[in-house]
């Protein structure tokens, strides 16, 4: 089914920029406003960012890792206690271990400095585009509960339960699981999953996908090391195996 996305809605989204370099904050603000975003908030401090999130509830956060009071990783950990909006990390480090750490604690994206402000704007639009897609899809398609094994996905409430107990998932983990569950016993390539869930197929995003698959297994599988449902098909991708398949 073709969904008509109202991209104009993105322009009113609230974006919080967190970086210790005022020049970078001002540059990003200028570029984002040129792209049509009207509600830009800025801070150079991690504690202030946490406070602002509680007060103004941003729709997306661009978060530098190196901050003068607490680092961006710790900010992300604290935000994830009450906030599930997309977080895009900025970092001068280009090492996989830092990327995996950032994504592993709840980040949704990772951009290495120096970067193009246009790229940041593109990534932000991509995140909002995916959110708008899932919101429209949920409104236009008949809701249902998907069950496999002792796990069920309630699309009406965007809840996942295992043995009748709610399992807390991040925004991306939920969307990833839902996409797999909507295509049961079907092999989905990594590029298909990245395009559908992340709205991109950038080089290096396979590590991001692997991290999220691992987290889903840890939260949902009885034996994460030997998963029964979220299965890797070597050389091809992943599939969600239902009971008895």
Strand content: 15-25%
CATH superfamily of the largest domain: Response regulator
Helical content, roughly? Answer: 40-55%
Count of DSSP-assigned helices: 8
* Unreliable segments of 5+ consecutive residues: 1-5
Shape: elongated
- Count structural domains: 2
- CATH-defined architecture of the largest domain: 3-Layer(aba) Sandwich
Which CATH first-tier class of the largest domain would you pick? Alpha Beta
- What is the typical, i.e. mean, pLDDT? 86
Helix-strand topology string: EHEHEHEHEHEEEEHHHEE
For the largest sheet, list the strands in their spatial order.
2-1-3-4-5
Q: Please report the distance between the alpha carbons of the first and last residues.
A: 28 Å
CATH third-level topology of the largest domain: Rossmann fold
Major sheet? 5 strands, parallel
What brief labels describe this structure?
single chain, 245 residues, alpha/beta, Rossmann fold, 2 domains, 4-stranded antiparallel sheet, 11 strands, elongated
Describe the structure.
The protein is of the alpha/beta class and 245 residues long. The protein has two domains: 8-136, 3-Layer(aba) Sandwich (Rossmann fold), CATH 3.40.50.2300; 142-240, Arc Repressor Mutant, subunit A (Orthogonal Bundle), CATH 1.10.10.10. Helix content is 41%, strand content 19%. It is built from eight helices and eleven strands. The chain has helices spanning 22-34, 46-56, 72-79, 96-104, 117-140, 171-181, 190-198, 205-220, and strands spanning 14-18, 39-43, 60-64, 87-91, 109-112, 145-148, 151-154, 159-162, 165-167, 230-233, 237-240. A five-stranded parallel beta sheet has the order 2-1-3-4-5, sandwiched between helices. Strand 4, helix 4 (96-104) and strand 5 (109-112) form a beta-alpha-beta unit. Helix 1 (22-34) crosses helix 5. The longest helix has 24 residues, at 117-140. The chain is elongated, with a radius of gyration of 18 Å. Mean pLDDT is 86; it is low at 1-5.
């Amino acid at each position: 089914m073709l969904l008509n996305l109202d991209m104009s809605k993105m322009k009113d989204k609230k974006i919080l920029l967190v970086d210790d370099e005022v020049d970078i904050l001002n540059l990003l603000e200028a570029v984002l406003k040129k792209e049509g975003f009207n509600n830009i908030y800025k801070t150079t401090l991690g504690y202030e960012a946490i406070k602002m999130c509680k007060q103004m509830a941003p729709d997306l956060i661009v978060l530098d890792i190196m901050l003068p009071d607490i680092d961006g990783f710790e900010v992300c950990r604290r935000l994830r206690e009450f906030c599930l909006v997309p977080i895009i990390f900025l970092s001068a480090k280009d090492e996989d271990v830092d990327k995996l750490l950032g994504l592993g604690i709840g980040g949704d994206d990772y951009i290495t400095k120096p970067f193009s402000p246009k790229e940041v704007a593109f990534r932000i639009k991509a995140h909002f585009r995916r959110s708008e897609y899932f919101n429209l899809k949920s409104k236009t398609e008949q809701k249902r509960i998907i069950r496999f094994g002792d796990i069920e996905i309630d699309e009406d409430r965007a809840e996942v339960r295992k043995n009748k107990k709610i399992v807390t998932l991040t925004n991306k983990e939920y969307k990833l699981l839902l996409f797999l569950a909507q295509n049961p016993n079907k092999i989905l390539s990594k590029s298909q999953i990245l395009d559908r869930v992340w709205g991109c197929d950038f080089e290096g995003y396979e590590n991001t996908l692997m991290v999220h698959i691992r987290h889903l297994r840890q939260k949902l599988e009885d034996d994460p090391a030997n998963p029964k449902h979220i299965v890797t098909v070597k050389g091809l991708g992943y599939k969600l195996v239902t009971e008895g398949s």
